[in-house]
């Protein structure tokens, strides 16, 4: 079963269960997938990886919104965003922990032979395909920067 089919079936189940938060979250994720499919010059069916990227983008929006609401003292809205984030994360690959990310960065540094901050672009280019949606780009960049400076 593809990610898109899974989203659609889970949304139907949430509708039947009258789970408003889950229904709304999955409905917005499906809308984002549909928008991605019709964006550009001609409509196309997204691959499973592309659907995962759309879901990851939606999750990132929820994460950033929750942080913004926390900063503004709007805890009830932040909690809603976190609840939606938790639902979206069910459809994403398991995130890398710091040790796994550091190991991937160390491998990329040894592969590229990069030294100092001048080699950050090379290392990022080498490590991004290995990470592939299992870590936020900001976390990856921070880990590369720390490894190159340390």
Distance between the termini: 44 Å
Radius of gyration: 18 Å
Helix tally?
7
Secondary structure category: mainly alpha
Query: What is the element string, with H for helices and E for strands?
Result: HHHHHHH
Give the quaternary arrangement of the chains: single chain
Count every beta strand, where a strand is a DSSP E run of 2 or more residues: 0
Characterize the main sheet.
Answer: none
Mean pLDDT: 89
- Given as residue ranges, the uncertain stretches (5+ residues, pLDDT < 50) are none
| Proportion in helices | over 70%
Strand % is under 5%
Principal-axes geometry comes out as globular
Describe the structure.
The chain is an all-alpha fold and 150 residues long. It has 7 helices and no strands. The chain has helices at 3-17, 20-38, 48-71, 75-89, 98-112, 120-131, 137-149. Helix 6 (120-131) crosses helix 7 (137-149). It is globular, with a radius of gyration of 18 Å. The mean pLDDT is 89.
Chain-wise SSE layout:
Layout: H1 3-17, H2 20-38, H3 48-71, H4 75-89, H5 98-112, H6 120-131, H7 137-149
Helix pairs in contact: 1-2, 2-3, 2-4, 3-4, 5-6, 5-7, 6-7
Quick structural overview:
With 150 residues, the chain is an all-alpha fold. The chain contains seven helices and no strands. The longest helix is centred in the middle third of the chain and has 24 residues.
List keywords for this structure.
mainly alpha, 150 residues, 75% helix, 7 helices
């Amino acid at each position: 079963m593809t990610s898109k089919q899974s989203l659609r079936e889970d949304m139907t189940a949430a509708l039947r269960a009258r789970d408003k938060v889950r229904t709304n979250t999955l409905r917005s994720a499906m809308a984002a997938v549909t928008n991605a499919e019709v964006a550009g010059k001609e409509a196309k069916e997204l691959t499973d990886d592309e659907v995962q990227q759309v879901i990851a983008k939606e999750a990132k929006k929820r994460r950033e919104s929750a942080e913004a609401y926390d900063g503004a003292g709007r805890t009830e809205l932040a909690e809603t965003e976190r609840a939606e984030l938790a639902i979206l994360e069910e459809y994403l690959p398991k995130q890398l922990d710091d040790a796994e990310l550091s190991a991937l960065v160390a491998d990329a540094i040894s592969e590229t032979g990069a030294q100092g901050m001048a080699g950050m672009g090379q290392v990022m280019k080498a490590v991004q395909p290995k990470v592939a949606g299992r870590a936020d780009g900001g976390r990856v960049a921070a880990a590369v920067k720390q490894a190159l400076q340390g």
